[in-house]
């Protein structure tokens, strides 16, 4: 797959799916030990993060981003919205100070005017449209309007009756604002900024929304949500919300405005009332979200149409008020250490924060079990791999199935052969990943965890769709009933052992 270091949606149209989607990150700053701008930029560059959204237009941050090529969305904070929305001159001064002073060295590509204004700051809603227009006019005057798009992020809560998506509509009480906002976006060839949080939809559903549906986990066809009006099948909450926004716009006779998701993510830690705010769930959600975005999957209503997304957020913010989860949406801590390992293999190196340059060879998901078994037997026999850690009672015996045992054997051979090209194939049932497949006490060859320096393994809940026991030269295994397979996942998507 070609590397997708992707273009911003500067001129996207729903009549074309030519643009590739991108994944960016939001930069919150409510940290007691906030990294310096140069440290932030160093982290972005190390992770090959090419799109970032700032919640302000901090001068030091914009200077640090100069000459990096990183595409930047700057923001008009809500506390400045009233002044800008009431004065064209104030808007022009804002553009002069926060945009013109930095371009072209800093690659500013969008301005977010306010944040969730209709729901978070309703008293400023009457000036939102004028703020958008004044900011845009200042860009036109500076001949920057083609390079920099103007929009405003909305909470998905402005969409009522979001399922089925075909019946969704925007809260009618905001029509006097929403309709001119959409017409502005349409006339300036901009896009709708939407914040999408399946975590909150799941939490507020009181069990109606299955966790797997919120996490992008595969669902059997009879469990998929079907829009009875369109017969479109929805396999995840994210797509349903995005399509609800598309349908809500079409209800207002607007059908050609694309959507960029300005915030989405999952908390990695919560209090007793938030049992599903866990490392594994955050890992799973963001892994599947990024794969979904970068595959240009689109949505059931607009398949193949890019839905670029910014992950919320780069750092855990320990100073944020509220519940434990509010402080734990980050991908990294203040020291730049990953909360959980972020990888993107097979489609570039965005968010690939494996600073140890580790690669592993794993069994390819969906491979024929007989071919896996044959390759496993070869690795443990003619391949001269030490398969003793998979003996019953040894650290890598569990889970006892052909996929995880083959993964161990394939990787052991790959590492033994110094990762030489062609040594991770096994007739097509193996693939290379940067996700460390180590799990529990089973530390794989090549893992930093072998030295006790880092163990980046997490595992999803066991799957019940595999009953095959594994064997490595039959010496190693007994056949005593059925066994479940545990899918090992690092952080991000496209790991060969991630759900497909």
TrEMBL record:
InterPro entries recorded: GH (IPR017853), Glyco_hydro_17 (IPR000490), Glyco_hydro_17_plant (IPR044965), X8 (IPR012946)
* Entry keywords, A to Z: Cell membrane, Disulfide bond, Glycoprotein, Glycosidase, GPI-anchor, Hydrolase, Lipoprotein, Membrane, Plant defense, Signal, Transmembrane, Transmembrane helix
What kind of membrane protein is this, topologically? Lipid-anchor; GPI-anchor
Q: Which residues cross the membrane?
A: 475-499
Q: What class of enzyme is it?
A: hydrolase
Start and end of every X8 domain? 359-444
Q: Give an example GO molecular function.
A: glucan endo-1,3-beta-D-glucosidase activity
What is one GO cellular-component annotation here?
plasma membrane
Query: What is this enzyme's EC?
Result: 3.2.1.39
Q: Gene3D superfamilies given for it?
A: 1.20.58.1040, Glycosidases
Q: Localized where?
A: Cell membrane
Give me the reactions it catalyses: Hydrolysis of (1->3)-beta-D-glucosidic linkages in (1->3)-beta-D-glucans
Single biological process term from Gene Ontology:
defense response
Signal sequence residues: 1-17
Q: Which PROSITE patterns match?
A: GLYCOSYL_HYDROL_F17 (PS00587)
Q: Which organism is it from?
A: Rubus argutus (Southern blackberry)
UniProt lists the family membership as follows: Belongs to the glycosyl hydrolase 17 family.
Name of the protein in its database record: glucan endo-1,3-beta-D-glucosidase
